[in-house]
């Protein structure tokens, strides 16, 4: 039982506290709300306002057997005692919004002008109107939301497994949120004119390190998947060691340790990046890969800072002069229509040598529509480049041959649909066109800052447990 003199909790004082909070005053972490601030990083974003208001307002929560059986906390004006404020519920009870089962109508009585949250998990056969009414949305508010806000009726279509969250200020509806299994959710916010507007917001994300170790008994892919690696993560490991380890001929008994940085939203991993890995081919022979990024690109290096993969040139021409960049909304200089410019243009004189940006294989060499004379190269790490408008090909360049980093593959020209002499250069990564000037590429054979690399490697090794 918490007893507080009512002189300290006059309604005017409480109003001042609430006003202070919404004016941006920060509540000290040393006061009664320290448990709120301690857990605010993991708190459901829809609960925080409701919890704070419930802590500021003098409430008496009934804890008799009848109220325990209800899915709601019952609050009434009779809860106020003339001489003291009683709180019979555990503090943790105040931190959760009401849960509404679809078969249980609301039994909640709320103090005027207080914020509260009602959450509903959608079941088969539920309708938005039925749930809204059970949650306490009155007829006028429901009509305003459904028919006077200009929202598509598809906005209110429900699927089993989704969650609806209603936020009220007193009896007035403030917002409705529809949360599914996506990384985003839909929020309908009430405006000053009483209408509702639709927003698509991203759910909070969590980034964490994930370490896995497993023995190869069958093959790396199947054993990795059994251990919990996604297909994308398996591919990242194989690509990192592509020039050092042949996973196809790996003998049983080898051991792999991997460290991934994962981002999780709504309980799902939405991105994952290999930070470090070590493969023990035998008890005495191991190969390591450590991720390192600088201003020019990113790649994987051994413990000495040497690149595990062939490095790339950032530009296919020496002393580059860029005249047009990657731009999805560029107006075509000849056709005078908005058409994506998927590459980088280098404005150079006729005959300027064009270089392979890494060791590669010629996938195509020939005339290609408006590109004119074109060479397409397949590079390591699922990278492909296209060089267009050539005046001529370099000697020996034809489909199927291999080329070395820095080798001349052709010469600047204006063949095809072109306004003048230039090289049009495109780059694809994993089959998607990307900006060649900003994509992460391992552009150096050794790391440029060994001290920083050493610190990062030490951190990776400590996480791997080696």
UniProtKB/TrEMBL annotation:
Domain LysM: start-end pairs: 118-166
Keywords noted in UniProt: Hydrolase, Metal-binding, Metalloprotease, Protease, Zinc
Hydrolase as UniProt keyword: yes
Cofactor(s) for this UniProt protein: Zn(2+)
Molecular function GO terms recorded: metal ion binding; metalloendopeptidase activity
Cellular localization per UniProt: Cell envelope
Keyword check for Heme: no
GO cellular component entries: cell envelope
Chief location bin: other
GO biological process: proteolysis
Superkingdom of the organism of origin: Bacteria
Protein name: LysM domain-containing protein
Protein species of origin: Photobacterium galatheae
Origin organism lineage: Bacteria, Pseudomonadati, Pseudomonadota, Gammaproteobacteria, Vibrionales
């Amino acid at each position: 039982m918490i007893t507080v003199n009512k002189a300290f909790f006059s309604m005017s004082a409480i109003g001042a506290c609430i006003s202070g909070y919404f004016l941006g005053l920060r509540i000290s972490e040393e006061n009664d709300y320290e448990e709120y601030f301690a857990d605010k990083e993991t708190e459901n974003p829809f609960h925080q306002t409701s919890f704070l208001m419930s802590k500021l307002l003098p409430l008496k929560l009934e804890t008799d057997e009848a109220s325990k059986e209800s899915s709601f906390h019952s609050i009434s004006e009779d809860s106020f005692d003339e001489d003291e404020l009683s709180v019979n519920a555990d503090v943790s009870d105040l931190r959760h919004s009401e849960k509404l089962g679809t078969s249980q109508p609301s039994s909640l009585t709320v103090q005027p002008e207080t914020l509260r949250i009602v959450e509903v998990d959608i079941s088969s056969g539920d309708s938005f109107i039925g749930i809204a009414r059970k949650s306490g949305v009155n007829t006028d508010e429901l009509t305003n939301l459904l028919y006077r806000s200009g929202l598509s009726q598809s906005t209110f279509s429900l699927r089993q497994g989704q969650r609806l969250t209603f936020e009220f200020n007193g009896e007035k509806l403030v917002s409705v949120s529809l949360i599914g299994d996506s990384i985003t959710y839909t929020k309908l916010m009430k405006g000053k004119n009483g209408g509702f507007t639709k927003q698509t917001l991203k759910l909070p994300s969590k980034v964490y390190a994930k370490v896995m170790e497993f023995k190869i008994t069958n093959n790396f892919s199947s054993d990795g998947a059994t251990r919990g690696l996604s297909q994308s993560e398996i591919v990242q490991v194989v690509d990192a060691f592509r020039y050092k380890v042949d996973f196809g001929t790996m003998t049983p008994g080898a051991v792999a340790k991997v460290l991934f940085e994962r981002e999780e939203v709504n309980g799902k991993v939405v991105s994952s990046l290999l930070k470090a890995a070590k493969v023990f081919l035998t008890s005495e022979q191991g190969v390591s890969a450590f991720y390192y990024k600088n201003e020019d690109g990113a790649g994987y290096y051994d413990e000495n800072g040497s690149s595990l993969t062939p490095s790339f040139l950032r530009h296919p021409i020496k002393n580059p002069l860029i005249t047009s960049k990657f731009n999805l909304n560029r107006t075509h200089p000849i056709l005078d229509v908005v058409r994506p410019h998927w590459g980088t243009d280098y404005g150079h004189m006729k005959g300027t040598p064009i270089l392979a940006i890494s060791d590669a294989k010629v996938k195509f060499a020939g005339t290609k529509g408006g590109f004119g004379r074109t060479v397409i190269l397949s590079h390591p790490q699922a990278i492909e480049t296209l060089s267009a408008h050539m005046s001529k090909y370099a000697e020996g360049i034809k489909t199927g041959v291999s080329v070395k980093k820095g080798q001349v593959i052709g010469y600047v020209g204006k063949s095809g649909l072109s306004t003048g002499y230039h090289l049009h250069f495109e780059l694809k990564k994993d089959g998607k066109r990307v900006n060649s000037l900003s994509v992460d590429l391992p552009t150096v054979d050794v790391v440029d800052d060994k001290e920083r690399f050493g610190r990062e490697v030490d951190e990776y090794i400590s996480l791997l447990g080696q």
